[in-house]
């Protein structure tokens, strides 16, 4: 007897189960396919979700030391509504956050921007900012040190409308001014996490706006040497001791909220993927039931010669378990292959699997095997419960 035969002789139930499955190849293949789909669904959704989260979280890189300060509006306040920050309040922020960069921001929603050829740029957001170079890197052109008369354009506005440094743009602000500006620079792409949405914006010097108050302020610190938490706490202490007058929103908090939201969505999608494994369990249970019915006589003979109920149940559970193991063995590499494709598409690195993503694939494999084994319990119990005489009739 060969070594393989000696090993198989120790697990006769598995040998018998494998033989029985090979007698109904088509049904076994369909049951395995159902498990494969379930394992791939859970693993791929998990890995893809992790890759997407990494891709989106990367947009927050560089804004970890940034916070946005906006005035608080109380609709029940008496007197004129004040939704702006004064120059004195900006100075108080600078004093409270010694060492931080505090940039006042003006934003006009009633502006019309036209390119040199006369085309309007309906999606452009007009903002006034003191020194864009203190907050953004320049992709093309140069921002003058004494920036007073030119415009700085965000990457998306520039790319969409073929605007380059040296071009002219005309900006008309309702009731304020209608002027042409030379484009001094185009900014690097910032992504959706930028609190000022610079990609969609055209920046002008603050002196171009006929207003002495500001809509918001950007507070920025070097995250390697200073803490935005401390700067935010200083502003809170300075302005909100008696009554909340400003909101301080840190970019890092937005990132945490985003990650929490996406984790919830990912869990939901994985739950949906898990339904496919429930369907696989039903398919396997149906396969086992049909197999038990077709083998009633065989099982009756087994029971008549002394096979205990437990052995019959073990046999059918082993058959279901083999289907689950084969399905998981095929589904795991498929999930890794599809996950590698998603990593390449979203992150540019097919091997950028996270520990959480790998755990989702493992979870899909374990879930696939467990549901398969559970699916074999009822058919096994039903077949074993039949009296040998009834089975042989």
From TrEMBL:
Report how it sits in the membrane: Multi-pass membrane protein
Q: Which residues form the ABC3 transporter permease C-terminal domain?
A: 272-387
Alphabetical keyword list: Cell membrane, Membrane, Transmembrane, Transmembrane helix
A Pfam family matched in the record:
FtsX
Q: Where are the transmembrane segments?
A: 28-48, 268-290, 311-338, 358-378
Name the InterPro entries for this protein: ABC3_permease_C, MacB_PCD, Macrolide_Exporter_MacB
Query: Looking at the keywords, is Transmembrane present?
Result: yes
Subcellular location per UniProt equals: Cell membrane
Every MacB-like periplasmic core domain range? 28-236
Task: Enumerate the PANTHER family for this protein.
Answer: ABC TRANSPORTER PERMEASE YTRF, MEMBRANE COMPONENT OF TRANSPORTER-RELATED
What family classification does the UniProt entry report for this protein? Belongs to the ABC-4 integral membrane protein family.
Protein known as: ABC transporter permease
């Amino acid at each position: 007897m060969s070594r393989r035969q000696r090993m198989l002789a120790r697990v006769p139930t598995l040998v018998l189960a494998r033989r029985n499955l090979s007698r109904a190849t088509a049904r076994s293949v369909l049951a395995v396919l159902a498990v494969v789909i379930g394992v791939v669904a859970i693993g791929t959704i998990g890995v893809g979700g992790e890759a997407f989260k990494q891709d989106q979280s990367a947009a927050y890189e560089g804004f970890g030391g940034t916070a946005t300060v906006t005035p608080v509006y109380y609709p029940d306040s008496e007197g004129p509504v004040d939704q702006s920050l004064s120059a004195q309040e900006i100075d108080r922020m600078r004093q409270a956050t010694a060492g931080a960069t505090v940039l006042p921001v003006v934003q006009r929603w009633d502006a019309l921007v036209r390119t040199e050829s006369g085309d309007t740029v309906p999606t452009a957001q007009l903002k006034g900012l003191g020194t864009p170079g203190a907050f953004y890197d320049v992709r093309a052109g140069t921002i003058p040190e004494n920036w007073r008369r030119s415009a700085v354009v965000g990457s998306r506005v520039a790319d969409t409308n073929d605007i380059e440094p040296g071009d002219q743009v005309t900006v008309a602000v309702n009731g304020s001014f209608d002027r042409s500006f030379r484009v001094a620079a185009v900014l690097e792409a910032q992504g959706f996490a930028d609190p000022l949405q610079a990609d969609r914006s055209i920046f002008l010097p603050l002196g171009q706006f006929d207003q002495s108050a500001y809509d918001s302020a950007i507070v920025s610190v070097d995250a390697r040497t200073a803490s935005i938490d401390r700067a935010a706490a200083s502003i809170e202490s300075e302005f909100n001791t008696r009554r909340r007058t400003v909101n301080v929103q840190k970019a890092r908090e937005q990132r945490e909220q985003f990650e929490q939201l996406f984790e919830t969505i990912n869990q939901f999608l994985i739950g949906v993927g898990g339904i496919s494994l429930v369907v696989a369990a039903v398919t396997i249970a149906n396969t086992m039931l049909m197999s038990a019915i077709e083998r009633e006589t065989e099982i009756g003979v087994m029971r008549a010669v002394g096979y205990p109920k437990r052995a019959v149940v073990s046999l059918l559970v082993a058959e279901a378990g083999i289907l689950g193991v084969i399905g998981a063995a095929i589904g795991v590499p498929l999930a890794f292959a599809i996950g590698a494709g998603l990593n390449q598409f979203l992150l540019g690195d097919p091997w950028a699997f996270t520990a959480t993503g790998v755990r989702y694939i493992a979870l899909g494999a374990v879930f696939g095997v467990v549901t398969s084994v559970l699916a074999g319990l009822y058919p096994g119990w039903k077949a074993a419960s039949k009296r040998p005489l009834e089975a042989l009739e």
